[in-house]
Each structure stands twice: as C-alpha cells, then as structure tokens.
C-alpha cells in the first residue's frame, strides 16, 4: 500500500498468490502495466483501478476472480490490453454509462469466462483503435515503458504465446462462453483487427457480409456455433486471411473459391453437412446446393436386380422340374 509514485510496472505472474486483489496501490499514479497472470487470486476486481488513468495493460488471466464485466474500466483512456481469460464472470457486458468506453483498446480476451447473453454490442462502436489503420506501419512495441509484455492468443485450436506485442497488433477473443444471438455487423468496421475468435458459443444468424471490410484480418474462428446461411462471397476480398475455421455450424451452399480460399482444407468446414464444393468431396448441383446422394437409387436398382435374378432362378427351377416330369412320363410309356 505504499508503492512509490514512480512505479510503472507491476508483474507478479506465475506465482501462488492467494486471496483478494488489494483495493489500492496507494500512490502509484503512474502505473501502466498490471500483470497477475496465473495465480490463485479470487473475489472481484478492485474498482480503485479506475483511478490509475495511465494504465495500458491489465492481465488477470487464469485466476479465480468472480465478478461482472468491468465496464468501469472503459473510462481508462490509455487501456490497450485487457485480458480476463479463464476466470468466473457471471453476467454479460456491458451496461456502462461511459460515453465512449474502451477507445484505445487493441486486445481484449474474454475467453473461458462463463459469460452469457449477447455479445457486448454497446462497446463496439466506440472502440476506435480497432478501426484505425494509421499505425499499421509502425514497429513500436505495446507499452511505452516495457517491451516484455506477453499474452496468449488462441488461433485454429491452438494457443500461441505472443511476446513483445507490436502496437499494430489487434485481437478479440470471446471464445468458449455462452454468448448467443447474432454477430453484430459493426464488427466489420474493425479494419485493423488481425485475430477474431468467437468459437464455442451459441451464436446464430448469418456470417455478416460486413466482414469484407476487415482487410487486415489474418485469423477468423467461428467454429462450434449455430450459424446458418451461406458463406459470403465477399470474404474473398479479405486476402490477408491465413487461418479460417467455420466447422460445426449449420452453414449451407457452395464454398467460395478463389484467392486465399483456395488454400483452406477440409477441416475449415467439417460439421456443416449442407456445404458443398471444393475442398469437400460433396459436389454442388446447379443451384449451389449439395447434390442428392445416389446411394438410395443404387440400392433400389440393386434390390430390383436381385429380385429379377430370383424370379429367373425360380422360373428355371420350375421349368426344369416340369421338363423332367414330362420326360419321365414319356419314357415310362
């Protein structure tokens, strides 16, 4: 409780710290990075963090924190990284009265946190840093006073540890929760977003056509939801896309071909039984839907064929018996 005002970085990750996070860091008004990753901390996030207006990074991943979504952090105008992954948050974000929350946010990870309800649509329109493309050419590390910041990002079913995060990097991970409802078209405005993971939820509706505007997107994971409709042809314009996972949804129709879509394999689409076209083995009919399986007609023809052979055999046997009988009668006379 008596930290110096000059304290900028407080990293206590990978320990066995227990109990609640202290409600105050006293005079640490210059605090920019708070990393409590992988401890045994519990209870709510201290609301006093809202007064540290220079905070750029808050990482409390892999603890036992039980709280609602910290809408009040939206007032932190410098906050760039917010990682709440693998904790116990029990209500959906966000009903904040803050006018423009999370304007500077570049990385947000809410995965494995037990959120329910709709995706946090209210905070999307004000997330200006996700829309900005001005910084795409800057090789500057996230955080002015530290360059060893690291987070875990889930892509294509694997976790990747990112070290020395560039200012240009943007990621949004809401996977493995209980979000439902449709994906907001507003996400299409996030032109600088590189990683979007909404997998393992109960999302419905179509894949937004507005995703064609996400020209910097490199990884898109929408697997294990209840998405319906066709895969938008407009996604062909997202030529930076290197990883795509649409598996285990309810998508149907012809898979788009061309550009980066020619590089995606079967595992990007498995579990959608009404999809057709390459790289799947299911062919499409003229209307762009899977061709009806021929197995039933084949079975019918085979059954009919077997029936014809049975009749022929019966006729042959009957004729043979009758012929032999007549021959015997003739020979007897």
UniProtKB/TrEMBL annotation:
Gene Ontology CC entries for this record: plasma membrane
Coiled-coil ranges (or none): none
Membrane topology, as annotated: Single-pass type I membrane protein
Keyword Transcription set for record: no
Keywords attached to this entry: Cell membrane, Glycoprotein, Leucine-rich repeat, Membrane, Receptor, Repeat, Transmembrane, Transmembrane helix
Localization: Cell membrane
Pfam families: LRR_1, LRR_8
Annotated TM spans: 314-331
InterPro entries, per database record: Leu-rich_rpt, LRR_dom_sf
PANTHER family assigned: OS01G0160600 PROTEIN (PTHR27004:SF428), RECEPTOR-LIKE PROTEIN 12 ISOFORM X1 (PTHR27004)
Family: Belongs to the RLP family.
Protein name (record): Leucine-rich repeat-containing N-terminal plant-type domain-containing protein
